[in-house]
Design goal:
The complex is a heterodimer.
Chain A lengths: L3 H6 L4 H4 L12 H45 L14 E7 L2 E11 L9 E11 L5
Chain B lengths: L1 H59 L5 H11 L2 E9 L2 E8 L4 H8 L8 E6 L3
Antiparallel strand pairs in B: 1-2, 2-3
Helix pairs in contact in B: 1-2
Classes of the chains: A alpha+beta, B alpha+beta.
Amino acid sequence: MASSGSSDRDGGSSHTAGTRRGPIRGDRGLVLTEIAIAIPVMIVLAATCAWLLTLVAAKSRAIHAAHALAQQIARGGDPQVLLTDLPGTYSVSVEGDLVRVEVRRSVAAPGPILDSLSVDVSATAVAVREPTW
Amino acid sequence: MVTRGSRTVRADSGSGLLLTLLTGSGVTVLGILLLAVGEYAGQQQHIARVADSAALAAASALDDSGCAQAARVATANDAELRDCTVDGDDIVITVSTAYPLLLHRIADQWGQQLPALTASARAGPG
């Protein structure tokens, strides 16, 4: 990019001489074009990274919520008190004395175009129902 | 003159693409690392809570089946029971993740062995 001044002074380069003649040579502006393609690619990659961060955070919250709910239900408590900041939906299944809680939440992709694209983040936790005596 | 000229052309015309490739692969690697570290942190959180649940289950078992109960909880939570010791009235449980995480597999590629995630918890009759 910075060497465009020196390329002006140098003789016509062999591989561009055939394509264009005159004071503006073929490789002038080529970097600009490449950067013009590169910047959207970079933006998409950066947005993907930001989205991954959101996914990781959502997963962490889901794990926490699933365990909190499972332990609350296992000790015979009311799960309702934990539902106020629950990320997404949850389902409970009881197999014998095992309480299995699954928390599921769909995380939408960023941006207006990819909004319909979403990934489901889920976490499962199992706790043993405490005996009541 | 000729070598200077060709060197200038090569540095100039390819630099945008090279820059894109370098930065792009850098950001992609960063993204994969982000995912791996995120999974690791999430599983650390998970395994700590599993140890908690397993210890509670073991402590509330009325007979000698405490360690078996802990093993059951660990297995149901995609973990495995590593250690189960009775310490007086308390029971101390150590669990670890049952499968290699993304970070483990990345470390494997570099010939490194990462220890499995483990967590311990203690519980006793309240």
